[in-house]
Amino acid sequence: MRLKFAALAAASVLALAACGSSGSASSEDGGTEFRVAYLPTANYLTTVKDSGFLEEEGEKAGTTVKWIGPLDPVTAYDTVTAGEADVSSTGTGYFVNLAGNSEHWVAFALEKYSGKSQGIVATEQSGVNELKDLYGKKVGIDSPGATGDYLLNLAFKEAGLDVSKVEKVTLDTTSFATAFSSGQVDAIASYDQNLAAAMAVEGSKVLITGADMDSYNWSIHIVSREFAEAHPQELKAMYQGLRREAERAQADPTVITKKYAEFGATDDLVEQIATFDVPTIEPMDEAVVADLEKLGQQYVDFGFLESVPDIASAVVDES
């Protein structure tokens, strides 16, 4: 959230919002249980499984931790909305959609990075050297309104270009590398492993990264409102566990790269991922809410949303 799985289509949000959260967060011995639906990517809600920081902080608050996964994002969200888990991770874009379409979720921690792990990369054979060269070309994105589409729209808007002159091609997570290397697309707008794989291809050209734009697309950790309201002290403990995990990664960035390798990243990919910056964990305070409202306005400008949702009502500030 970092990424990859950072944002999904708005249509998925509506389906998830209809599910509703139910079930109990109690363990068999009567204590509180924090059930984590974690993703197969190296965000901190995944890597913290190795450090045990959630368990340590949870013990102080009288709660245990149950790990469920790794699950793909849609399955993870379905698991929480079905009442079978309490927390998962996503991208800020997906969360902004969620804030406007569901009352069942709140965000409790932001995983923030510069944006170097997101961007637009062109193939050598495309002959593309700058954004304007993408006119009439095929650009692979994850889904309409998701991270890649956001990056493409933002890059073109800031460059004063017309994104409607680009042919967007929707790709699933596993087909980016093949589509890029085989020339099925002329460029991709993506993040994390997909971006790293494209950057590692000989002759490819990075046109722009999230760090070069006014991007508010980061990873975010979300919890069922039911758990947040019923167990505020336990949730604060989990937030502290994520803060400790971020400090661990800042001191030793291989915390992230080793996890990507564990999930199947090649040595070349790991080497490229190692050039990305190490995220921090930030509270959902007024400054973050303001940033996400700016993201919401960008989503409105790009036609992804009709209006900016009430972000402040969908967060828990653990600062």
TrEMBL record:
Task: Report the subcellular localization.
Answer: Periplasm
Tell me which Pfam families the record gives.
Answer: NMT1 (PF09084)
TM ranges: none
Q: What is its main location?
A: periplasm
Q: Which InterPro entries match?
A: SsuA/THI5
Signal peptide: which range, if any?
1-17
**Which family does the entry's similarity section mention?**
Belongs to the bacterial solute-binding protein SsuA/TauA family.
Q: What is this protein called?
A: NrtA/SsuA/CpmA family ABC transporter substrate-binding protein
Naturally occurring in which organism (per UniProt):
Kineosporia babensis
